Amino acid sequence: MGFESEYIWMNGEMLPYKEATVHFMTPALHYGAAVFEGIRCYDTEQGPAVFRLKEHIARLFDSAKVLGYEKLPYSEQEIIDATKQTVAKNKFKECYIRPLVYMTSQTNFGLCLEGSEPHIGISAWEWGAMLGEDTLEKGIRANISSFTRHHPNVAMTKAKVAGNYANSILAKTESVRLGFDEAIMLDPQGYVAECTGENLFLVRDGKLFTPYTATVLEGITRDAIVKIAQDLGYEIKEQPIARDQLYIADEVFMCGTAAECVPVTEIDFRSIGSGTAGPVTRDIQSAFGKVLRGNHPRSAGWLDYVY
User: Which regions of the chain does DSSP assign to beta strands (E)?
Assistant: First the structure.
């Protein structure tokens, strides 16, 4: 499947897909001066429902603030409503959603937001499991990237700034060319940070461990996994994690909006645990899947129905 849809919302208008364009001289295209979100909508018995929509839009606005925009032309509620309108207009039951706030200006093409104007667009398209349906059980192969994750005082790690993802592109491309599915990136101190677009967890002796959020994106799916795991009775610790701790883990899995919850069954040519999804990962996957389909006690607070 491609990224096509019938309509894209742009600056208050619902435009046909081919008309939703930006000019070549838009500064965001040249300098990466944009912030975005990745959101999923799921088909449930009560109709299409967007997972943690309010939290995603709040983070979009936080990212814009971190980039330097103190005020956007629309409120959070207006963007929430526009997101649901975009899904409904395209008649999607299940889709991936991409809101984008980007720098544009008729007078300023420099490296400063002053004098620029933020524009907002929202697209949606039908997209299944990012890494393939079979990876939910068999998992993926990853390597430790030669590229380091951002230093928090070099590129803001709490914002989904488009320009930051050149770092992910370098790492992901290297890993795929080496024959792996995904890259695991270390922070500037040499500890495990995150994957190119996902947060990481390891399991050892029935306990879950995950890196501190200081140098990684505070993932909304990560937060959901933490709460679900705690509901299931698992102990979770945030702490520095060395790369060799991944090798000797009982299980490793990654999570994110696009990837959802996927086991990592091989790292740097070393099999992790049994080489397939472990029992803790499967337990969390099962509960997470129920949440997304509206069949879990947490669904009521985390699903925002389109209609």
Answer: 7-10, 13-16, 34-36, 39-44, 47-51, 95-104, 117-125, 140-144, 182-186, 192-195, 199-204, 207-210, 236-238, 251-256, 260-267, 270-271, 303-305
If pLDDT is split at 50, 70 and 90, which confidence band does 1 have?
A: low
**Structure-derived torsion over alpha carbons of residues 237, 239, 241, 246, reported in degrees to the nearest 10:** 0
188's tokens: 């500037």
Rounded to the nearest integer, the mean pLDDT of the chain is: 95
Q: Are 241 and 209 in contact (CB under 8 A)?
A: yes
Q: What are the C-alpha distances in Å from 155 to residues 130, 167, 219, 264?
A: 26, 10, 17, 27
* Residue 71, token pair as written in the block: 């005020």
Are the CB atoms for 285 and 136 separated by under 8 Å?
yes
For residue 167, the surrounding DSSP H or E stretch is: helix 166-177
- Specify the pTM: 0.95
Tell me the average pLDDT across 259-269. 97
pLDDT at 115: 84
Q: Which residues are catalytic?
A: 160
Interhelix angle 53-67/220-231, nearest 10 degrees: 140
The first and second tokens of residue 224, run together, are 């959901």
pLDDT score at 134 = 81
* 35-56 residue pLDDT tens: 999 999 999 999 999 999 999 9
| Average pLDDT of the residues in 277-290 | 97
- How far from 254 is each of 116, 135, 169, 200, 261, CA to CA, in Å? 37, 11, 18, 4, 6
Per-residue burial over 130-149, b = 16 or more CB atoms within 10 Å of its CB, e = otherwise: bbeeebbeebbbbbbbebbb
